[in-house]
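Quick one:
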Amino acid sequence: MRYLTLTQMEFEYALETGKPIISFLPKDPGSIVAKKCEKGEEGKKKLEDFKKTAQRKMVKYWTTPQELGSIVSRSLIKLIKDYPAVGWVKADNITDENSMKQILKLQRENEALKDELLSVTTQVPKGSENLAQGDDEIEIHFTCYAEKRSYTCNPTLVFSWNDIFAHIAPNFIDECKEDRFKLLINKLISEHKDEIIEQPCFKNLKNFSDFKINTEDFNLIKVQFKALGLIKLSERKRGVKESTDYWTLTDYGDHVMTQLLAIRKDT
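Output:
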């Protein structure tokens, strides 16, 4: 029979029964005083093996006892909220069987509402089915420099809406300043330099730089993604002098980004 600590036994029991698990590990194990550490080589190895197992689930790291207490407290409150269960309620707080049934009924209704909300946030917004999107294409006009001169032969590149959104979306997970939004489109254009060079007005030119999307096309892309329910203006409060718009993903936009960019395993 292999040696197990009580903590490890509790951890494995939680795994077997599908209980939510959070492990709390020291951020700097080397700072722990020697008398509170494993001394034997066998014990150290078993401890490291257990830590590796624990790190496969959710882990919170701490540096001081005070921080550990705060993290544990906040984590328990979130667990109680995210994973409601009878075990979270003290037995002497349950007055009778009818109260228990009512609580369980409300919990089931709550879960059903959560599932319904998740379904709504991952569906195409109503009314957007007639808008250009996905693999539909848009022709982008831009300017650039070649050999230190600006060329105004109205060059264009064609992208699908998915191509553009997949390129910019990760930068919108928190929020993205509008100036950076435009720079991301310019970077996408510059990455297709080989296609630009093939256009007649750039024949035999070199040293391309300073790619800039036309303002009209940038505004069109911005409005289209907003209309498709993929991005929205950030609601984060800012200083009085801050006048620049910030954009962020909607729940639906986050879902679309994940579908476009997440790596799928080979089948």
